[in-house]
Amino acid sequence: MGGDLEARSFDAIVDALRAAVPVLHEAEIPFLLGGSMAVWAYGGPEPVNDLDLMFRPQDAERAQQALARAGFRTGDPPEEWLLKAWHHDVLVDLIFAPRGVPIDDDTLARGNERSLSAIRLRVMALEDVLTSKLLALDEHQLDMSYLLQLVRAVREQVDWDELRRRTADSPYAEAFLLLAERLGISAPPGTEPTPAPPATTP
């Protein structure tokens, strides 16, 4: 029963992505697929919660307005780093200031073109996604189990030394990376990363 529910939830997220991408392309608003859905694009597990789209700060409100005109419900949360939209029951986070990864022209350029379920779009670079997730760990949000699932699935594509360097100021990220190393998930410090495989359609 739980598997059926998860499958329906993932299908709903894909439907939301299918609805949002052409709207943003038509409005000529640059964006990246981020969050757990981006990790799925690199071979990670199917997410079942929400959809994260990443925008430069100057583009986020324009993106929300474009989605609203296309029939998405919208709302302004108390957080100062994102806006929100809904496609039916799926929450779409319009993120413009994730922790530790400014969304700017360089971040957009680092993204990778992917075709996901016949949807062509740019996906946030894997190290950018994982940096933002690791830097979001704190004493109030310290559930590492799902994060371990994500990195285990894509471990051969990660530049672990780069990830360590970019998250070095966070004791929570340091603890997670040590755990990943002790579990045999991450490459030891100083190990050359394995080149990412060519783009495929999940």
Automatic annotation (TrEMBL):
InterPro entries named among the record's database cross-references: NT_sf, NTP_transf_5
The protein's name: Nucleotidyltransferase
Domain of life assignment: Bacteria
Pfam families: NTP_transf_5
Gene3D superfamilies found in the cross-reference section: 3.30.460.40
UniProt lineage: Bacteria, Bacillati, Actinomycetota, Thermoleophilia, Solirubrobacterales
